[in-house]
Batch of 3 targets.
Target 1
Amino acid sequence: MLSAAFASQLINLCAAVLLLLSFSMLAQRRTVALVNLFTLQGLALAASTLVVAASTGQNHLYYSAALTFALKVLLLPWILHRLIRRLDVQWETEGRLNVSVTMIVGLLVVIFAFGLAEPISALATTVTRSTLGIALGVVLLAFLMMITRSKAVSQVVGFLAMENGLFFAATSATYGMPMLIELGIALDVLVAVLVLGVFFFQIREQFDSLDLQHFESLKEK
Amino acid sequence: MSAAAIPAILNQLLELVLALLAAPLFLGWVNQCRAWLQNRSAPSIWLPYRNLEKLFQKDAVIAENASWLFRAAPYVMFGSMALAAAIIPSLGTALPSAIVADAIALVGLFATARVFVSLAAMDIGTSFGTLGARRAMMIGFLAEPALLMVIFTASLISASTSLAAIAEALVGRELVLYPSLGFAAVAFLLVLLAENARIPIDNPATHLELTMIHEAMLLEYSARHLALLEWASALKLFNYAAIGFALFLPWGMARGDAGVVELMFGVPILALKLLMAGAGLALIETLSAKVRIFRAPEFLATAFLLAVLGMLVHLLLGS
């Protein structure tokens, strides 16, 4: 067991790192670097879950930390890297992304999330309650990332980052979801990535590109 | 005069003299590290002093259409930097002059120096001077809010905007992990690089016309004016390093009630910090490439964002 004060400092640190990584993902133009940042985010998430587990003695959180590590640090990045190699988009960048404006909007979104979470954290009794605002911020930033991106792979990374945020929210609000639900979500995410991987190839076959802007001219003339 | 006032006044004098003397040395150390990292044979660490000595001995040449502003700017710049060095605690937190001006006034001092040098650069009417001045003002107006936010984050933790009081509060506490200060530290590093014409934004080692910012403003200066401006730039870098130490690495600084002995212990600790900071700065400059001027707003928006995030994280997590 860790001492409560030190554990809460460590959790706060992990939360801050998660938020920082969300912002760097928002600002990252290169797809490969985006996947690496997602890996780091998974690592921070696993670390924070581990700290919560060690400080509260909730045994099921150890399993969920291990699951997070296996899925989000090892398996999903491996699948994504493989997909990127197979699709031959290693050097793909988001050319039209306006980083400064996106980041300022991201900042407003985070302020909104913090304000939103404050009354909820005031009611909660967990040691992690103050990080709820950050968890909501990570979710909304991932949303923003999906909105601003036009490449298919980055959108999928945005979707996965959103799941990271939700998982973190669950850990900080109620010490995690029941194991069964967690397993179900993990499986869902895995299947989603596999199915979207198949989609990528279909999209490329149809449009000769993974740029989703092409979807807008889909209607028949 | 009370017994406690003597170390304070000694501290004040020592800090000012040390800053004036050590600033060119610090610059020389950074240049030396840079040369080593880039596989060049390094210039002497004393080179900035020799350069200053050479420039002070020359006769000044001033353009015919120069106004008083052109002549006054080097003195204003040097004066503001020396005054800033007197406000920033580097050896001990008992600074009599810290009561006069807080961190916000310090940012104002930096702004005064910037405005005067930019105006002087435009005074002659050459295109390079104007170009450099405009770029410097752009960088400055983006970097300033970020710097203020960094200082506000530290002030929130210590409930004061006076740098001496902030350092006093931070050096006195037990070791606590402050994620907010981490954010602020990264933001401060970005501001330091941009404000001191360091590599991702400007290259301090070149007179290559179209990319320079700081050097372009000094093109028309010669002799003692140039010497003062170069000394002031070195002092500015030293000041920024000292602000960084006061906010993020205050350990080893003499507390308010410390005696002369603790103050003297501060000198080697400060030297050690400067050695590390200089090596780190050279490493950053070697590893990064200069960004296009149009990417500079992005760079500084990141700094601003990190600083504001630091503040928000502090408000949310209370740490």
Target 2
Amino acid sequence: MTRSRLRAVALAAVATGSLVAASACGSGFDDSNQGTTQQSSGPASLQIMIGSSGDAETKAVQDAAAAWASSSGNQATVTPAQDLAQQLGQALAGGTPPDVFYVDAARFADYASVGALEPYGENLAGKDAFLPNLRQSFTFDGKLYCAPKDTSTLALAINTDLWKKAGLTDADIPTSWDQLTAVAQKIKAKGTTPMAIGDTRDRIGAFLVQNGGWWVNEDGKQATADTPQNEEALSYVQSLLKQGLAKFPKALDAGWGGEAFGKGKVAMTIEGNWLKGALKADFPDVKYTIKELPAGPKGKGTLSFTQCWGIAAKTKFKDQAVKFVEAMTTADQQMAFAKAFGVMPSRQDAQATYQQQYPEDAAFIAGAQYAQGPVNAPKMDSVLADLDAGLQGLQNGNPKTILQRFDKNAKTALGG
Amino acid sequence: MALATDPRTDRSAAPARPRHRGGGASQRALASRFLGYAILIFFSLVFLYPFVIQIANSFKTEADAAANPLSPVPHPFITDAMVRIFEGTAFPTWLGNSVVVTVVVTLARVLLDSMAGYALSRLRFPGRGLLFAGLIALMAVPPVVLLIPKFLVLNQLGMYNSYAALIVPIMVDAAGVFIMKQFFDSIPASVEEAARIDGAGVFRTFWSVVLPMARPALITLTILSFQGSWNEFPHTVVAVQNPSLFTLPRGLADLVSGSLGAGTQYPLKLGAALLATIPVAIIFVIFQRYFVRGATEGAERG
Amino acid sequence: MTATSAPRMSKGIRGNERSAGWLFVAPVVLILGLFMLLPILMALWVSLTAWNGQGSPFTAGVPFVGADNYTRLFAVDNLARLNFMTSVRNNAYYVLFVVPVQTALALGLALVVNNRLLKGKDFFRTAFYFPSVTSSVAISVVFLFMFTNGGAINEILAAFGIRGPQWFSDPRGVIHLFLDRLGVVDVNAPPAALADHGVFGLTWWDWTSGPSVAMCAIIALVIWTTSGTFMLMFLAALQNVPIQLDEAGMIDGANRWQRFRYITLPQLRPTTFLVITLGLIGTWQVFDQIYVMSQGNPAKTTLTPAYLSYRTAFRDFDYGSGAAISFVLFLIIVLLTVSQRWLMRDRDQPRRRRLSRGRA
């Protein structure tokens, strides 16, 4: 019995060992091929993954892709992701990433630093047509990796009906923090929740900029959250929340500020260009106007967001993918997207056209002049997620603690 | 306490029933019966009313659902949400994938688990004891711990993001093998022995003689496998990320959380959840007995 | 047994059995080995590296960091430890609330359903067990709907004059709120003694927060879902309790509570033990509901180790840390199960063993 028992154990060990060996040499990845993925010319079948802001954007991109596909003889499939960062991460690790995908400026450095992106931007024809500060957001190690697809800024959306109901006129549109508070109190007195503001750094951060501060310094290498200006800014937002003059979307049973605004639950909200497309598609009856955000003690401030068309380093259809991106970033196509879901073009020539055609977006365009871009440093994602968690508790929390915690965590991540 | 003797051997005489002890006792008994029913009915409501809410709100407009969530009657009754589910989301794809995966996995589990259980119970081969011990050890591993590692293995094998990834890793489960082994242990070997003496080979014996005898356990195993694979969720998160491979739970999670679920649209989501629940509900109502048996057999496992 | 004529024939049959035996178990061995054993080994390796998800983790270029991923979770004052400890705290409170309540509820329901005097056993048993059969994702959707600010639960509470909280956006801990109600502390101004000192990266104030209001919604969901399964187990065990025991107790003058405590409960001991064990194992792994309903929000109060492990790996691309977290979780579960077995061990065993040895 013991001999056969021993044999069994030996057999099991051999089996396990061979399993491990087999999988180690498995067909999952082949590292040696990293720079030389087999390129396939001829009709391509491109997989495009986007982080859509809503049905409007999904449809617009799908239509554009279909048009390109039929005119160029290729296939293009557009998939909106439920959680782009997560799904992209899994796809990149799984070795079968989509060929083309959105890359958010905030996470760009993460992808570029691990070699997941193809730096096609350097050789892109007409790369100088894009706005310089946007190009900067997508440059890593001196190389332009990808073409910015559009840009958006935050502005103040006002529901004109609820505004009138509160007895306010155009003259009352707030241009400073104090005026904002006063106006909000008037609206509240009439029984409407004055403002919906998102509970993340991507909305509250605007107030920091208005008070002359920011989470990190100019070159993004040092954390500068714990300053008196930032504390003032956060305290101001906290006072709005505490007095019931502003509420987070979740407290209004909405997924984001735009939904609360569209459902008529609030008179004002701070959102970006995408608000227009979403309102047009889901809440067409809301009458609203867009104004620049009220200035803070140190001046006007807002946030800008941008994404680029990333091409996977492992794609088999590099040339076709580049052609796809070129088609998506022509001035006409950018204007078409702008029309469909309200983002601003990233090309200078298209921006000029945009300004002419959409005077009501003057606030967004003006904001682009003084907007602050997202924190762009590798490995900051969980630090920023922690910051958001802290901001979610801002109403009852301590602003200084939130800022100090960010500084501490960022220091470890930035290595400074 | 006062029970010195083993009650199983003694107490042949019929004990005095409390009801006969007097009027007060029977009133108490009535009161306790009333209380008992009250508790049962209250908890039935607690356990079943959410499903009523689910069904009712699937057929309401968004405004109605937001205003009157508790009401079991939609005002007005619309089937918009249901239509949107089939046309606006990838629901048919999810349904198709779920059916394929569940059918294959259930069949595989029934066959493979019963084969392994039989072998562990009846056939003598070297390493049997070790294997059984290993099986028990594996049963103790919490599935969540395996989430990331399974992804790594699927990656290395090149199986990630395919139907194989959805099906193969869950094609057998240690608990199923254990249940079948327990069952085979409990039936006498005489019939098989007779067949073997008559010259039938091992597989023949298994297929023609043993399996038919194992019907109740097989049915239980089928039911449990069906339910387990239809409702399986964490595995689908790490096995695939191509939306055309999503099963119902994964697609539903997609619909509800994440950026696509930012707007509330509850009738749509509740409707999709309802449709995902119906197959299991039907099977459950018909095959209640076997579900119950499966749960209690799980108890004996401990 | 089938007598002495068998051995001669069985040698031939038995020989066949060996290869047949291995053949029969081969698929199971292969699949379980490949997808349970191998993953554990691979994950162990990855947890000792800082693999970032690009390329194979078995190549030479992957940075080996030894036990760093593990020590970072306990000994280094950084975000990783903060997240991990927060998730452990959340899950611990979750377990503390779910396991006793679901065990007690399951037992209570089983007792009532089993009562000889009440009819309709089958219907009630089905009703209570039904939620356990349905998909956790589908149930999560229903509960998300019920716990919205204007939803079913708040409507019911309003009928009693209570203003329901904003369930999924309220990160405040239940214990804090309770103490606040009693006037002992102020939820918004924690006492300095608790807020300034801490252990493992969390202040004492944070450790004693209790589950958040959002977590309570998930706790309710899980209790609602799993009580039915455990009720079935108790029912089966109750049916094995001989009626004569109970009636003997009645004759001896024991009232209902005494009968329950001294007769029924001890008979149910193995089942209770099993229910608690399964409850502990299950609650420490909560993942589906977090993924669908809250993703760790609000303010990380619904973050659990299982979900954190997933997020660290697939979102932050830090597979090493994610794998380390899952192994620590495994360890926690094993330790708890073992200590629970030890705590609840049958202390009568030695006596019985002596008796049986005596008899033999």
Target 3
Amino acid sequence: MRSYVVRRLLLFIPALLGASMLIFVLMRLVPGDIAEILVYQTGSETSGVQQRQIQQIRRELGLNEPVVVQYLSWVAGAVRGDFGKSYTQRRPVWDIVRERFPRSMELAILTLALALVWAIPLGVISAVYRNSPLDYLARIASLSGLSLPLFVTGALILYGLVRLFHWIPPLEFVPFSENPVENLKQLIWPALAQAFYISAPIARLTRSQMLEVIRQDYVRTARAKGLTERAVVYRHALRNSLLPVVTFVGWWGGRLLGGLVIMEIIFVVPGMGTALVQAVSQRDYPTVQAMVFLMALVFLLVNLLVDLVYVWLDPRIHYA
Amino acid sequence: MREVSRLVRRQPLGAAGGIIVLALVAVAVLAPRLAWHGPKEAGFAPYLPPSAEFPMGTDQVGRDVMSRVIWGARLSLYVGLVSVLFGITAGSLWGAVTAYLGGAADTGSQRVVDAVMALPPIILALALMAALGQSVNNVIIALVVLLTPTAARTIRSVALGVVASPYMEAARAVGASRWRIICRHLIPNCLAAYIVLITTNVSYAIVVEASLSFIGAGAPPDEPSWGGMLTAGIQALETAPWMILFPGLAISLAVFGLNLFGDSIRDVTDPRLRGGLG
């Protein structure tokens, strides 16, 4: 078991190196760098003075070094936990991440919680009352969830709120610790929209797994020994059908941090996603690199965690 | 004809999806005849509500929303089909060949796939678009980069099974060349999985294109992308709700049809092949 975890952790290294290198090179290919943006913002026409300013900024930020050297010095910093300074906000990238990460995390957790609370019962009901009107209703609900792109759901929720209640969610972010009500007033809507989307595949998977498990001998045994239907469904059938659901939810959970960007934009949540979009357009390389690195790391960690939870859920699985 | 009626009975949802897909294709192909105005033709009064002249109203610069929704079908389908065809084909060949070669080629290529898949797809696409510049064809390139590694991973696992099968050993035993084994035995046996990947990923590609355009990083704003139309609509939520309702409806219907169709193709070809990008 321990050697398995160590081997998996070792595989993180090429994945993270490759991913960060890819983003690094891509950002260098973007036309126009921060020096040009900073200088041209202030003046309108190109002059010799501006050219000299641009060169000076590039020298200060190390942008005139060869890309390989820049990358290696970034890696050298990153392994020591130093992700450099943001070009535009003039403060350590780590401070920005520390400020933004908890917000996106909160939104992600809220989303997953809502999705699970809604999707798993939906899948169970669908399976237990198979082919009943209830089942069809549940299946249509989940199919439509799959077909509505995130930005459509988000836009419709916003429109619904404006139209029915003449109210838009707060545009100013308030931390949960300061004012939970005000915080949830803003975050509940993007979480609902995103949860509606994710819940569709979860409900479908739960349903098909339940249908599979309900036919097993041990479920018949459980019924035969006189257990209540409730105990049969929840303790025997559901527990055994959740395994693939866990993988799927884990995969989605790991992706969520980067996938929330659309919701953050629509509902003006100052999280990781909005910061990233902004940083890309401002050519703020250090911020982009640090955030993408963190998202990749979270994705890999969550995937590993899911595989370990597997062992706990199903003792038959054994990693050597 | 008998085949068709059997398909309808066996897969009613798939058949319904097929009809929606056919309608989508028809609208895309006939767009120049169906649309009353050009996709970029402006100059009418802005924010006109739906009327007989503009059944879906006009947008912020006075373009006919219905015409743009119709032209949008062409753009979506073009991006979806071309990117999936190139991305899935390249990834499938890559996955099949590295699975066959095994050893360092296989391990090395899997590490590359790991690296690309560790990045959030929409963020990777965003960075690609920033580097390439905004245009419809660059959206396709970004999508190809997104789709290739996923296809490589899926087809690799299928191909590993094929490589280990007795008929491959038999082919080797009779002295078939490496090229012949790959072309005559390996690739045909991965074809079912390939077709499933194609049909299930068109809707994914369409959604990613629309999402990118929605963020403002996809097709240029004057292109009739359903995603881009929604961005403009959100700015005018109270005054011109038709600007989000109709493009939103169009993309949802298209994705719904493609999903139904793709699902039933998957069930018909091989029920074990669940997974992919979903």
